[in-house]
Specification:
The protein is of the alpha/beta class. Helices cover about 30% and strands about 15% of the residues. The protein contains eight helices and eleven strands. The strands form five sheets. The protein has a three-stranded antiparallel beta sheet.
């Protein structure tokens, strides 16, 4: 989608949770992308190296009383399904997290694939975390700061993240940042209806034989099923795909992959 529109394609390593990281996995992912002919147009950015930028943004929000310290633990919020409407009377947390004050409003945007999407911020999100009690930065703040700092104009990602977008747009408003265009691609499901993901032990793509997987991805994106049949190299496949790609054909519902 980026190069079809004459733009640049960027890769960001969102390594915000060191305790859950697997050593060398980011490098393996970058190597797999390269094997598929996908090399970013700018140097790779790593969120683990950008804490000062996030701290500056948090301080701006705190200075305007739009962010606050909260000692509520997950168990304190369990009765409300984890939604933070207000701090409990006697919070049990040992360290404070930092949360954004969320207004009682519906926030809507037009998604490039799924059309209009609206969320009741107070009911569906609540005051959400910007910095965790363990000191680690939350995804919502980090991506908003990085998208602005990198000059991102279009965000293309999986539909499982669409419900994060209203929170990110709210943060952009609070920080005076531009809002990119968003397009959320369908999630690929297995025969049992669960998302194909590493957390569910799904098999990785084969970096040693990229063409079958590239052609399958092309078909799953709703494109001409035979449009890449005659390409014999990765470079030719990507060149043909870039020229022939039609964003309007992307499915608007999740897809089930027959095994």
């Amino acid at each position: 989608m980026a190069r079809h529109q004459g733009g640049e394609w960027l890769v960001r390593i969102e390594d915000l949770d060191p305790p859950r990281e697997i050593a060398g996995m980011a490098e393996q992912q970058l190597a797999t992308l390269a094997a598929f002919g996908m090399v970013p147009d700018s140097p790779v950015v790593r969120q683990s190296e950008r804490g000062e930028l996030y701290d500056q943004a948090l301080r701006r929000l705190c200075d305007r009383s739009e962010a606050y310290a909260c000692w509520c633990s997950r168990s304190d919020l369990a009765a409300g399904n984890g939604i933070h409407d207000q701090c409990v009377e006697r919070p049990s947390g040992l360290q404070a997290a930092w949360r954004l004050r969320v207004p009682d409003r519906d926030l809507a945007f037009v998604d490039g694939v799924r059309g209009r999407y609206s969320q009741s911020l107070r009911r569906e999100s609540g005051d959400f975390v910007l910095r965790r009690a363990d000191g680690l930065w939350a995804y919502q703040l980090a991506v908003v700061v990085d998208d602005a700092e990198q000059g991102i104009t279009d965000v293309v990602r999986g539909a499982d993240l669409i419900d994060s977008t209203p929170r990110q747009i709210l943060l952009q408003e609070r920080l005076g940042l531009a809002t990119p265009s968003y397009a959320h691609l369908p999630t690929v499901l297995g025969p049992d209806g669960s998302k194909l993901a590493k957390s569910l032990a799904s098999l990785p793509v084969d970096a040693g034989n990229p063409l079958p997987c590239l052609r399958m991805a092309w078909r799953l994106l709703g494109q001409d099923p035979h449009g890449l049949d005659s390409t014999e190299t990765i470079a030719r496949t990507l060149a043909v795909a870039q020229s022939a790609f039609d964003p309007g054909r992307i499915p608007t519902i999740d897809l089930t992959l027959a095994m």
